[in-house]
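I hope you will forgive my troubling you with a question about protein structure. The matter concerns a single protein, recorded as an amino acid sequence and a row of backbone structure tokens. Please examine both parts with care and let me know of anything in them that strikes you as inconsistent. Thank you for your consideration; the sequence and its tokens are set out here:
***
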Amino acid sequence: MIRPWWIGALAISLLAGCGSTPPAPEREVVAPTASGDSPVIGPRWQLILLGTDERWEGAEPAWFEAESGRGGWRLTGSDGCRRLEANLALDDGNRIVIEGLDSGPDCGGAPQAPRVAEMMQAAHRYLIDHDRLVFFGRDSRVLGGFRRR
């Protein structure tokens, strides 16, 4: 005689096997590249917001430009106090990578200046809407906003 608890255990194990899902396929990692027709390349972008609501208050504007440079794209600009230089990579998925950001020695003339470099280094994606450019972090948090000049 087959014991009823064996039938129940067999039924549960069969149902458990049917309920499992296959592992999600791994996403292909695409190396960031830059396209000359990207709207980020060319114009000067002037910082207007840090985060979502903190207006830039420096005496000098913080800005950047992206252009062709030594072996790739270069970002040059100012944090409102010092000159900024970095390597830049963009891809078709609106991903942005700013590496090797050199902002020189610290200066006390613009209290928000150090945060400009932090924002640029943390930028992961961007969105352009008309004359506005917004940087987003890896967690989709708004890092800052720029206006085309």
Notes: Residues 4-19 form the longest helix (16 residues). The two ends are 86 Å apart (CA to CA). The domain at 44-148 is CATH 2.40.128.270 (Lipocalin). Confidence is low (pLDDT under 50) at residues 25-34.
